[in-house]
Design brief:
The complex is a heterodimer of chains A (364) and B (343). Chain A is built from twelve helices and nine strands. Chain A is α/β, with parallel strands linked by helices and 364 residues long. Among the domains of chain A are: 80-109, no CATH class; 118-273 and 308-358, 3-Layer(aba) Sandwich (Glycerol-3-phosphate (1)-acyltransferase). Chain B starts with 5 loop residues before the first strand and ends with a helix. The chains are: A alpha/beta (364), B alpha/beta (343).
């Protein structure tokens, strides 16, 4: 170690490699710019270190780029960074993040029989939508006490806004205030579309059919349904806040069969996010979708037209309509089903009117 | 005691699962004799099973049933892929005509008391309009037009017809989810054994699996139990394809659906995997079957859940731990130490 010699760096300006003392090969010499042959055999003017600053012998440890930084310094830097990112309780936070990452990488997480992935729903889907609900639409919700803390219940809402943003915002609101996941029932189009289909199932949705609705409700889930369907979500802007026909009342029959309460929900604000002023039926038929929307911003501004207008949203969860006092045969009595459907629809329409009165303008 | 002892006829013993089930049944003390039938002899040891080389597509099978005094018939020779049979035409004939001949023979027989049919959950199809979980009363949302799914639908139709004509014979139909295990060769197992797994872009199908030992157990259970009817059989729980791929630690390539069909055709001609149209539908939309009736009425509880069945399969077919995973593992392991330094 002690007698390790200092290896000069470079070739002293001559082509080729080596210590600078050996004569380079003919091939390398012709590559170099022509210069006068050296008359004096001196060492090239190399910045030789001053005698009082002799570098220590080079060891293999020093060759790593991180040589000068001690592990302690690394840890301190890491800790500062972690505190910066995760706050003071960085350690459990980081452990949770890593554990999450490990679970996602190895697939060691569970989904329920509908394909619902609570982790993805809560940590990615709802977490990314929460700021939109709070800051962009400034959602104000009332009547949240009407949602049961446990057990099955059917939330029935009006549907509007060209894209089902109201469904997502209802999920966010319900989860934020009750901690429960609202399980939406979606049209089969949702499950036919790539990306949307896998996200919908991971987010907790399932197909809007009697079998799935009853299975979820008897399993004690909080189920959300938008019975107006495409008629509601794709209605022209001029018809805003006019409830469309409530399907065939299948949702009431399912609630009657499982004996769960129906909670009417009125959402004001979603109508204005993408004002639907036109439709391209030919293109819609070609794409196999119910409508191709034209809004004041879409498709004129391209992807920018997909930014929803920042309308002010109000939500009102109404008094639950109890169905447990009817007997099991009630679901097979069409007249009763129609009556309950009308009652729910009327309730939602009335609260829509009162919410609209409360809102001072579309934007605030 | 001799009167209660059973003589069981098992069809489809040339294939691995059939052969192993027949062997297992032959070792069962409650079973007197097992007669294995197939058009080609099994390649491996069949133990105490009496092998009769007979094609179930012709009436010889009736003579076998009469001669051996068979009281229980286990029909396992419904095949899923044309590859093993030598063409779609042969496959359809083996499946449909074979079942018809077998049922005709059973109907004539004085001795047959019990028929067990191994069917599949493919009979429910796979589409975007499917309910989350199929119960036994439900049918496919779209009638299958060709292939295995259509064969199975027809076979079940003939079995129902037989059950009507011979109400004295107990008929048990089992609709099994995908069978997986270290020894299973099936379309889904060869799919998961591919080095790179093609998936349908934007879809993450739900899947259920049955472990091969549970298949043996449920068939044995049905031979002894006195429960007629149709039952879904699947391990508990549901898995997504993305989860399955990650647990295998294999790379996957998401492709648009027509491209997956193209890859499937290429793999089929290269004999690497046997894709069928109904499998492509399954890989797009997935399927779930409800097993309440299996537990409540059939009284059968699978030993393996869907996850465990897959884990047992993945132990043989999966890859080693990936570098990224090792990095995360290392970080998780090192975290308490990092904390200890700073109190």
């Amino acid at each position: 170690m002690a007698d390790a010699e200092v290896i000069p760096i470079g070739t002293g300006g001559r082509p080729g490699r080596g210590t600078g003392s050996a004569r380079p090969s003919a091939a390398s010499r012709i590559l170099a710019p022509a210069r006068k042959p050296a008359t004096r055999r001196t060492r090239p003017e190399e910045p030789t270190p001053p005698a009082d600053d002799v570098r220590p012998p080079i060891t293999t440890e020093d060759r790593a780029p991180t040589a000068g930084i001690t592990p302690g310094e690394w840890l301190a830097a890491f800790r500062t960074g972690a505190v910066e990112v995760f706050g003071d309780d960085w350690e459990p936070q980081l452990a949770r993040l890593l554990a999450f990452l490990r679970r996602r990488l190895t697939g060691e997480y569970a989904v329920d029989e509908y394909g619902f992935d609570p982790e993805v729903a809560e940590k990615l889907l709802l977490a990314s939508l929460r700021p939109i609900a709070a800051r962009w639409f400034r959602i104000e919700a009332t009547g949240l006490d009407n949602l049961p803390a446990e057990g099955g219940a059917l939330v029935v809402s009006n549907h509007s806004g060209t894209l089902p943003v109201d469904g997502l915002m209802t999920m966010v609101t319900v989860h934020e205030h009750t901690g429960r996941f609202l399980r939406p029932l979606g049209a089969d189009l949702v499950f036919r579309m790539p990306l949307v289909s896998s996200l919908a199932r991971k987010g907790g949705a399932t197909l809007a059919c009697a079998e799935d609705a009853e299975r979820m409700l008897s399993g004690g889930e909080l189920v959300g349904v938008w019975p107006e369907g495409f008629k509601g979500i794709g209605k022209p802007f001029a018809e805003r806040y006019k409830l469309q026909r409530f399907g065939r009342g299948g949702f009431v029959a399912s609630a009657l069969r499982t004996g769960v309460p129906i909670i009417p929900l009125a959402v004001v604000g979603a109508e204005e996010i993408y004002p639907l002023v036109g439709n391209v039926p030919a293109l819609a038929r070609l794409l196999g979708v119910p409508y191709v929307p034209i809004t004041p911003l879409f498709p004129w501004l391209g992807p920018l037209g997909l930014v929803p207008l920042p309308s002010k949203w109000l939500m009102e969860f109404g008094e639950p309509v109890r169905t447990d006092e009817y007997d099991a045969r009630a679901a097979d009595d069409p007249m009763l089903v129609f009556d309950v459907t009308d009652q729910v629809r009327e309730t939602i329409q009335q609260s829509l009117y009162s919410l609209l009165m409360r809102r001072s303008s579309v934007w605030r | 005691m001799d009167a209660t002892k059973k003589v069981v006829l098992v069809t489809g013993v040339s294939r691995d699962l059939g052969r192993r089930f027949a062997r297992r049944l032959a070792a069962d003390p409650g079973v007197d004799r097992v007669v294995g039938v197939d058009a080609v002899p099994p390649r491996d040891d069949i133990g105490d099973v009496t092998f009769v080389r007979a094609d179930i597509r012709n009436p010889v099978i009736a003579k076998v049933i009469a001669k051996e005094d068979v009281d229980t018939v286990v029909h396992m020779s419904v095949i899923a892929t044309p590859g093993s049979a030598g063409g779609r035409g042969t496959m359809k004939e083996l499946n449909v005509i074979g079942t018809m001949q077998l049922l005709a023979a059973c109907q004539r027989s004085e001795s047959v008391e019990h028929l067990v049919v191994k069917s599949t959950s493919t009979v429910y199809g796979a589409s975007s309009r499917d309910p989350a979980m199929f119960t036994e009363e439900m049918g496919p949302r779209r009638e299958p037009s060709s292939g295995y799914a259509k064969d199975v639908a027809e076979i079940e139709g003939y079995v129902r017809g037989f059950a009507r004509r011979r109400p004295d014979v107990r008929v048990t139909t089992l609709r099994l989810a995908n069978v997986l295990g270290p020894h299973v060769t099936s379309p889904i197992s060869s799919y998961f054994r591919l080095p790179v797994i093609p998936t349908v872009l934007g879809f993450d199908p739900r899947m259920q699996f049955v472990h091969e030992t549970d298949l043996m157990r449920v068939l044995t259970h049905c031979v002894h139990a006195d429960v007629p009817g149709t039952f879904n059989v699947a391990g508990e729980g549901v898995m997504l394809l993305s989860q399955a791929v990650r647990r295998l630690r294999k790379p996957s390539v998401p492709l648009v659906r027509p491209a997956v069909a193209g890859v499937a055709a290429a793999l089929k001609s290269a004999r690497m995997a046997d894709f069928s149209p109904e499998q492509l539908g399954f890989l797009t939309f997935g399927r779930g079957i409800d097993t309440t009736r299996m537990r409540a009425e059939l009284g059968f509880e699978p030993a393996y859940t869907t996850e465990h069945a897959f884990a047992d399969f993945a132990a043989g077919a999966g890859h080693d731990v990936s570098p990224v995973e090792r990095l995360v593992e290392g970080l998780v392991a090192s975290l308490p130490d990092a904390g200890a330094v700073h109190g």
